């Protein structure tokens, strides 16, 4: 066989490995975001009756805390001074630790849902599926776009969370 044919066969054979690696990363991130939201809701639903008179302020505080942290993280440069990381986060314990670290904010969001007595199943599934899709797109779009827009997306996500917290307080007070 010639070089081009062999190369095309190699690409065809590698596509399933590529699909599995994209799915593995996206699946873990989606699962942990949805799961942490549920765990936060579960924790919050057990204490909500004790704090119902000021729960909207707690929700604002939690969402603002997470949102401001995301904004600060999006503004400050990485520890190594480089704009982009070249490590492979899609392996073993690193993947699990990264999944937990990126979903801690979902814990606070889940707690907020409990405090406003919201239905949890739709948000858990929605958060998990959206995270899975966006993570898969992130992997597919590659490092170049991540380096270019990653920090800005973190800032926008933080602003959205702060906005949701403000909306909860405003709707509760009016």
Describe this structure in words.
The structure is a single chain. With 174 residues, the protein is an all-alpha fold. The protein is 82% helix and 0% strand. The chain contains 4 helices and no strands. It has helices spanning 3-47, 55-75, 92-115, 121-173. It is elongated, with a radius of gyration of 20 Å. It starts with a helix and ends with a helix.
Keywords:
mainly alpha, 4 helices
In short:
This protein has 174 residues and is mostly helical. It has one domain (3-173). The protein is built from four helices and no strands.
Strand content: under 5%
Strand tally:
0
The overall pLDDT average reads 78
Shape: elongated
Please tell me how large the radius of gyration is: 20 Å
Helicity level, as a percent range? over 70%
By secondary-structure content and strand pairing, the structural class works out as mainly alpha
Q: What is the N-to-C succession of helices and strands? A: HHHH
> What's the helix count?
4
Low-confidence stretches: none
Tell me the distance between the termini: 74 Å
Whole-number count of domains: 1
Biggest pleated sheet: none
């Amino acid at each position: 066989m010639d070089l081009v044919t062999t190369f095309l066969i190699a690409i065809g054979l590698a596509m399933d490995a590529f699909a599995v690696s994209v799915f593995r990363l996206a699946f873990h991130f989606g699962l942990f975001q949805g799961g942490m939201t549920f765990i936060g809701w579960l924790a919050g639903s057990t204490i909500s009756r004790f704090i119902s008179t000021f729960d909207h302020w707690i929700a604002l505080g939690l969402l603002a805390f997470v949102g401001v942290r995301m904004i600060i993280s999006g503004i400050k440069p990485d520890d190594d001074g480089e704009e982009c990381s070249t490590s492979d986060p899609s392996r073993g314990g690193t993947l699990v630790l990264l999944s937990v670290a990126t979903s801690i904010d979902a814990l606070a969001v889940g707690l907020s849902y409990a405090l406003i007595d919201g239905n949890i199943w739709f948000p858990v599934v929605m958060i998990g599926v959206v995270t899975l899709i966006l993570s898969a797109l992130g992997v597919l779009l590659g490092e170049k776009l991540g380096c270019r827009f990653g920090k800005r997306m973190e800032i926008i996500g933080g602003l959205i969370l702060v906005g949701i917290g403000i909306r909860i307080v405003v709707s509760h007070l009016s």
